[in-house]
């Protein structure tokens, strides 16, 4: 690995009170607690029209005729846009993270001739109110000719399946990406044992509590489009809108104030965003679209659905010789800006050291809602496959699954280590996390006492583990360029001093709940030396912030830390030079920033308030010779490497072998995300990810009827999202191995919780039922699934 | 306007209107609104009380929870017209000027919010819960809070916050 240097941090040791590394009160909280958050639908503009969208009710249909005449007669209806008009006035939506080698599937804002999933936008109405716009949709006549459809991923690949995009593809296989090194097949032949399994990972939704929303406003004379939108990536939205609407980026301002959750679903533009802008530009009045929840279930990207064919070859002593995974990712009916997840390949081997490996990703088109990024982006999916199979291997070898894991993990002195697909694992102590988890659940005691059934309740007891690594952040813009990504790996930060003696931090990272305002302010205060309260973070406005990438891929803090370090260092140096001039001190290095003042290190009576220094800089009078006016620094940082978070989750379950019902009695996780900048925020992130991971493990699944191609449970009433009653209490433990490849040694923490939950629960149930030989292979793990698995084994035995 | 007259109206404007007079956060408001306007939309878009959020419009997610005559209700399932003559409290009623209420302070101290979209729903549910008496087991608190969904926190810290608030005895005698 190449040697890396980072912008140097000023001496941090003598801060009191310490601000970085502590759970400071969040900057975001007061406004949100008072009901003063500004989510997109909270933004009002005079004379705003509202928009409603007519959607294809079929999974696959030709649009034969659209008659909007009756709708236009309704009082209050301002405009109707059809697919033909949208195609004439806008270009296709650009993909941000293409699958390498995949041909482009044209994706226009409204379907013109053919719709490829239930819920695809076909026609749009702008009216004086949403009520009237929805009335108008009822008056629009659309004649559809239903086409043969396919919703199952494997069926879509079968010969004779209807080809969904025949203009672009010969089959429904969008692309296949094989990758690997060594000779896995040779190792399979030599191995003492080979275990294999097919694992089905269910389709779910991230379900942010705020649905998507957009407010578009056009000032023709200024050629200025202002777009308030619920997004994780304001600057990328600006780029995509400029491309689709054929506008100069200079004329587009994107503002994301408060965002009510993203989880990967709000990465880039959606068709409705383009249509709202088209309405606003032709009506010359603001147009608002707020997705309702039933639309959200059909029109906002889903996540996860994939089928993994995984194999592990090992020696009789447990040493893993080779791992392979051939997996099919469901893309849905179109390629969303982030498409189906790509990281199943990158971390396909998890924390295990293996030289011979092969992975093939196959991306498959089906007649379902497009898949997009969702917390973990392939890592939870593949973790379920390899961690389930590791336990199967342990049972086959009659080995302790903890010892099997430990002996195969990459060891602390083996880093940096490159896995068979080229991922560079930076550092860590994987085994320590595993041992801590095993001790916390008294694994040794459980091995002694056995699975039961327990006398008290007749239930079987099991403990399951899931060890993981998480790729956090991107390994530089160069890495992304090699994959054709249409965004960079960097963050940009602008810091300006103000006359009140405070610092204004401007960032394109919108506030989606991750607490970036807080941790950016902590870093700024720490690096510059001032009070936390002196820092104000202004987030998510492209007109105010420097270009950046956005909040996803657990990358924000890694990249922003580098930019903040550099900007603060330069701002601090200039501040001290001006203060030295004001105080008559020859050497600025003898000065220090303390709270809201600059003070001499030796003569504590020599001090000047920051407000005085900043006012002088801004006024531009009385500065040292040659010093430019202003205190305003912008910095960009491109992280040279990704950092890998790691850890182990453990679940303790009690299972009723007659009914398949079970309880997760304990769930714990030992987690390492490097140097903790704000332990409270990290714990919040990990717990939130775990809740989504456990949701998928226990109940979440979007079900399509293969006959009709309809989404069966696409309402809040029918889709199971866990409530406060449905989740086990979670115990968290942390280790903190600093990453050598990131500023401050941080690793990302945003997605990690979502990764290990499902495999830990599944492994615990299989452990409890090991006397029956039950091996679970799919999600969600419902009592019915367990009962059916048991019943198959009982029948097979009888 | 009678029901059969409503049916004979053309769709779209002009819509049948009704007059609502209600006490909202201690202020009497009188507004003429479309008959089909929901209580949540009325609070948000007519009165500008945008702290009440809308998440599903079918009474499941609890984002729109407000107090009507002291009881926690989902305002997306009510019509604005049904607020006539009632006493309504929204999240905007909780904080005294320039400060947070004890309940809000508990949420802040426990890191019980991330994106904050669900927070008003939990705060109003907890406010109603506190009015019913402070003695609640953790399981009972979970049960009561199960009417509001959160996708960020995993709930543990929200339950911690409400537990701490109730344990401090806050809000017990407020109703009298």
How would you portray this structure in words?
The complex is a heterodimer of chains A (798) and B (176). Helix content of chain A is 28%, strand content 23%. In chain A, a hairpin with a 4-residue loop joins β9 and β10. Chain A has three domains: 157 residues, Aldehyde oxidase/xanthine dehydrogenase, molybdopterin binding domain (Aldehyde Oxidoreductase, domain 4, 2-Layer Sandwich); 191 residues, Aldehyde oxidase/xanthine dehydrogenase, a/b hammerhead (Aldehyde Oxidoreductase, domain 3), CATH 3.90.1170.50; 231 residues, Aldehyde Oxidoreductase, domain 4 (2-Layer Sandwich). Chain A has 21 helices and 28 strands. The N terminus of chain A is likely disordered. The longest helix of chain A has 28 residues. In chain A, α16 packs parallel to α17, α17 crosses α18 and α19 crosses α20. Chain A is of the alpha+beta class. Chain B is an alpha+beta fold and 176 residues long. In chain B, β1 and β2 form a beta hairpin. Chain B is globular. The interface between A and B is large, with 71 and 61 residues.
Provide a concise account of the structure shown:
The complex is a heterodimer of chains A (798) and B (176). Chain A has 798 residues and is an alpha+beta fold.
Uncertain residue segments of chain B: 172-176
**Rg of chain B:** 18 Å
CATH class of the largest domain in chain B: Alpha Beta
**Mean pLDDT over the full residue set of chain A:** 95
Strand content of chain B: 15-25%
Q: How many helical stretches of chain A?
A: 21
Q: Look up the CATH topology of the largest domain in chain A.
A: Aldehyde Oxidoreductase, domain 4
Largest sheet of chain A: 7 strands, mixed
The backbone outline of chain B, from C-alpha atoms, is globular
For the record, the count of structural domains of chain A works out to 3
* Overall radius of gyration of chain A: 28 Å
Question: Based on the structure given, which CATH architecture of the largest domain in chain A is correct?
Answer: 2-Layer Sandwich
Q: What's the N-to-C terminus distance of chain B?
A: 40 Å
CATH architecture of the largest domain in chain B: Roll
What can be said about the biggest beta sheet of chain B? 5 strands, mixed
Using the coordinates shown, work out and report the CATH topology of the largest domain in chain B. Answer: Ubiquitin-like (UB roll)
